Amino acid sequence: MLARQRQAIILEEARRSGAVRVSDLVERLSVSDMTVRRDLDVLASRGLVEKVYGGATTIGDRSTDEPGFEAKSVQQQGHKEAIAARAAELVPAGSAIGLSAGTTTWTFARALAGVADLTVVTNSVRIADVLHESPQPGRTVILTGGVRTPSDALVGPVAVQSIRNLHLDMVFLGVHGMADGPGFTTPNLTEGETDRALMESARKLVVLADHTKWGTVGISTIADLADASAVVSDADLPGDARATLSEHVGELIVADVPSTPEEAGE
């Protein structure tokens, strides 16, 4: 198979699912790891995909662009794990918390394994599955109903109504973007409404967002920066973002991200 044929297949798959993994492409195309990586380099140089750790994603820059869950799950994995571990330290045993849908909050859900007696409300089937896979004594998981979005959130009137009857200690919110002015945003109008209901049900709002979210603006504002009791981000958050967030949010928490040889070689 010629290189341009492989690259066409790779691009078609990336556009279909939102992301591709090197390991999957090696098996599908029956070529070496290095061949796939060279093809991804070519596509990235042409502005057709964005390389990420372990693969690539399609490129979207509009305020209504919403990558699917699989596409987002391969982005900034190490950063999300560091954020999740740091955020889990904020959760006392016996709390009632809310988790919005998203890959960062999904990673955070896995970090809650050591917290006992939790009640967790979420509008994400994937997060509910994670919590059920690692059961803890006294844990209760409440899954809202609703209509499913590309990011695997359950949204709409059913979700909003179920959330508005609840009273939570804190909500952990994943966002599409954050910026001075627009605040915390999402590319999905209906998801924004559901996230606002979740935020309003809690005494504290904690936003989980890696450094790439700074400066990204979705079509719908979920909350102003000042509405957040805390923002947990990573050490790659730029200085201007740190200054702005420190000025507006209750507390900015920066998680250290351990480097790996694989990431250094990307």
TrEMBL record:
Any Pfam family hit: HTH_DeoR
Gene Ontology MF terms: DNA binding
SMART domains: DeoRC, HTH_DEOR
Entry keyword annotation includes Transcription regulation: yes
Boundaries of every HTH deoR-type domain copy: 3-58
Domain of life: Bacteria
Record InterPro entries: Carb_Metab_HTH_regulators, DeoR-like_C, DeoR_HTH, NagB/RpiA_transferase-like, WH-like_DNA-bd_sf, WH_DNA-bd_sf
Key words of the record: DNA-binding, Transcription, Transcription regulation
Protein name: DeoR/GlpR family DNA-binding transcription regulator
Organism: Prauserella halophila
